[in-house]
């Protein structure tokens, strides 16, 4: 799954570059959307995000491209690789500006973890 985001002035830190908290928000949100669309019978909450490292700054006006791919399915959890690119060609290595893994857990109405028994879970 892919998503895009335009970096606007309200997303910048006091140095004039993208504030990392927004990046994490978008990564979390898009991973959650991918899981919820792939497993429509499940209710997900985020339990963890792997290593977070901001090695490249992002300027105002950049169109970010988020590529969300399912990496692993567990008993109650599902993990996604999320890569964030700037520029049009995502095959060019330097256009990758951020990546991490996001893990979400299927919960029941009481908020307790529950098996991925939803219809799409076997795919
Ligand atoms: C989600 C929640 C119900 C899970 O209950 P829990 O008892 O902590 O669950 P567990 O430690 O047994 O882990 C559940 C699954 O997540 C996986 N998991 C646990 N910690 C993890 C981590 N740091 N990274 C990746 N996966 C993790 C476990 O391997 C397990 O996967 P599996 O069942 O597919 O094998 C509970 O942690 C919770 O309510 N968290 C708050 C969620 C939330 O509010 N998120 C928004 C952040 S503010």
Give the topology.
Elements: E1 2-6, H1 20-38, E2 44-49, E3 63-73, E4 77-86, E5 96-106
Antiparallel strand pairs: 1-3, 2-5, 3-4, 4-5
The structure holds coenzyme A (COA).
Q: Would you write up a description of this structure?
A:
- With 123 residues, the chain is α+β, with helices and mostly antiparallel strands.
- It has one domain (2-122): Roll (Thiol Ester Dehydrase, Chain A).
- It is built from one helix and five strands.
- A five-stranded antiparallel β-sheet has the order 1-3-4-5-2, with helices on one face.
- A hairpin with a 3-residue loop joins strand 3 and strand 4 (77-86).
- The longest helix has 19 residues, at 20-38.
- It is elongated.
- It starts with a strand and ends in a 17-residue tail after the last strand.
- The relative contact order is 0.24.
- The model has no long low-confidence stretch (mean pLDDT 92).
- The structure holds coenzyme A.
- The site of coenzyme A has 14 residues, from strand 2 and strand 5.
- Coenzyme A binds next to strand 2 and strand 5.
Please give a quick description of this structure.
The protein has 123 residues and is α+β, with helices and mostly antiparallel strands. The chain has one helix at residues 20-38; strands spanning 2-6, 44-49, 63-73, 77-86, 96-106.
Keywords:
single chain; about 120 residues; alpha+beta; Thiol Ester Dehydrase, Chain A; 5-stranded antiparallel β-sheet; 1 helix; 5 strands; elongated; binds coenzyme A
């Amino acid at each position: 799954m892919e998503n895009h985001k335009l970096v606007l002035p309200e997303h910048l830190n006091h140095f004039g570059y993208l504030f990392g908290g927004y990046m994490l928000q978008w990564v979390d949100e898009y991973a959650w959307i991918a899981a919820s669309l792939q497993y429509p019978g499940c209710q997900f909450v985020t339990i963890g995000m792997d290593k977070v490292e901001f090695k490249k700054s992002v300027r105002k006006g950049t169109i970010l491209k988020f590529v969300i791919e399912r990496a692993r399915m567990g008993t109650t959890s599902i993990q996604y690789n999320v890569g964030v690119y700037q520029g049009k060609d995502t095959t060019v290595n330097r256009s990758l500006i951020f990546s991490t893994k996001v893990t979400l857990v299927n919960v029941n109405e009481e908020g307790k973890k529950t098996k991925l028994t939803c219809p799409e879970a076997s795919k």
